[in-house]
Amino acid sequence: MFPEREAWTRQNLITLTEIPAPPFKEEARGRAFANMLRAAGADSVWIDEVGNILAKRHGKTGKKTVVLEAHLDTVFPEETDVKIKMRGDTLYALGVGDDTRGLTMVLTILGCDGAHALNEWWLDDNSHLAMQRTLLVLLAEAGVR
After folding, report:
1. Based on CB atoms within 10 Å of each CB, which residue in 34, 76, 89, 135 is the most buried?
2. pTM over 0.85
C-alpha cells in the first residue's frame, strides 16, 4: 500500500523482531517502539502504568478517533534466538509475523504523509489517529496484569 516506505518498514520489522520480548519482559522492545513512534511523527507518546505504549497523531478537529493496535510480546523464552535470517526477499525469525509485523504496520501508517496517505486512504483531517500496544490483549482486557 505504501511502496515508498518498503525499505523503511522492512528495517523497522528487523529491528523490532531482533529485540527479545518474552511475556512480561517487553520493556526493551517497548522503549524502542515508543522511540520509533516519536520518530515516525506521533504528536504524543506515553507509557501507562502497566507498560502499554500509546501514541496519538492529531487531526484538525478530533471529531473521531481511529485506533491501530498491535502487541509487543512474544511467547518464546528469553533465550530464544530471534535474529532475522534472510533468504531472497523473505525474512525468517520467530515472532516476525506475530505480532511484530503489526507494530511495523502502525509505524508505516503513522510515518506516511497524513494528507497524502492517511487522508486519501481512510483517515480525514477531522480524525485523531491513536496507536496503542497491549501486552497480551486478553490479559490486558481482563485486568490480569
Report:
1. 135
2. no
- The neighbour count for residue 138, using CB atoms within 10 Å, is 9
In this structure, the chain runs to a length of: 145
What is the pLDDT confidence band of residue 33, given thresholds at 50, 70 and 90? very high
Helix, strand, coil percentages in the chain from 3-state DSSP, rounded to 5: 40, 20, 40
The CA distances from residue 75 to 26, 44, 98, 133, 135, in Å, are 11, 29, 10, 16, 11
Other CB atoms within 10 Å distance of the CB of residue 141: 9
- For 15, the grid coordinates are 529491528
Q: CA 99, CA 105: separation in Å to the nearest integer?
A: 10
Report the DSSP pairing between strands 53-57 and 64-71.
unpaired
Q: Which domains does the chain have, with CATH numbers?
A: 3-142 (3.40.630.10)
Who has greater pLDDT, 17 or 120? 17
